Amino acid sequence: MSVEIEQAYTRAGDLIQLVGLSHKSFIFTLIDGGEFHTHRGVIKHDDLIGKPWGIQIFSHNGSPFFLLQPSLPDILKSTKRATQIMYPKEIGYILIQLGVKPGTRIIEAGTGSGSFTTALSYAIGDSGRIYSYEAKESNQKIAIRSLEKLGLTGNIEFKVRDIREGFDEIGVDAVFLDVANPYDYLKQVKMALKPGGFFASILPTMNQVTSLLTALRRNDFAFIDVCDISQRYYKTEPSRFRPTDRMIAHTGYLIFARSVTIDHDLADPKLLKEIGVLGIEDEKSTEMDELIVVDEATEE
Ligand SMILES: C[S@@+](CC[C@H](N)C(=O)[O-])C[C@H]1O[C@@H](n2cnc3c(N)ncnc32)[C@H](O)[C@@H]1O
What letter would DSSP give residue 24? Predict the structure, then answer.
């Protein structure tokens, strides 16, 4: 089974996409002698094998389809859902911000439906490693099945565990948490990350973000960024070019940080403030301490 298709013609074992009327899309693997059944008719796999990509084909009752290599976003869209999944607009930016590249060692939790895992597996290649933790075995099983269909499990270690119990790995390059309460697991994250390593999380509500910001500061994570990503689509009719009528208004907030090692007795408070490790609340307590010292001096 293969998703990296460089040849000009389809072969048995290739992952293919058929796109029919109303953008209805089907992704499956070509098997010698196989048959694909849809309400728009039956297509014999043998009639699709050895064909050039991009051509139009027809089912037994004449329904038209285009024969394509599925793109990664197409594959993610078709991921079987056990949970809320992540979308390409967030996944792409997170991969860049976390510095994910061939050879990266990364922890993620939870596996969920495996949509982020799929993109990660593509990005890190054979030399990288994903350690994918999930508390609910039933969710992870669905994700594993999806990844197996894509032939993408070779660089992934799946673990059924509540991450409250910590991670097995140390010195990983990055940790990504897609769980409701990432702020409860930063000690565990810190233990697993290499010094200076990358952390990211995605959260749907602002309340969760502020809890995470507070916890990141308390656990010596610095260079913190929060953003969200809006994506607007346009109607691709040249004579009436304009935005599409509907838009997804909100998916989640993205939070990024680096794990740093700080000797709080020696560190320059100005620098700590600049990198986000000290905040307004620390300033207030310093001012209060100064006031108390002044008062004591006056009393004497
Ligand atoms: C939103 S889903 C993750 C979706 C996934 N990123 C994807 O792209 O398909 C959140 C998952 O985290 C799991 N989870 C929540 N808390 C957890 C914990 N403490 N330890 C491990 N997994 C956890 C849930 O069971 C759920 O499957």
Answer: -
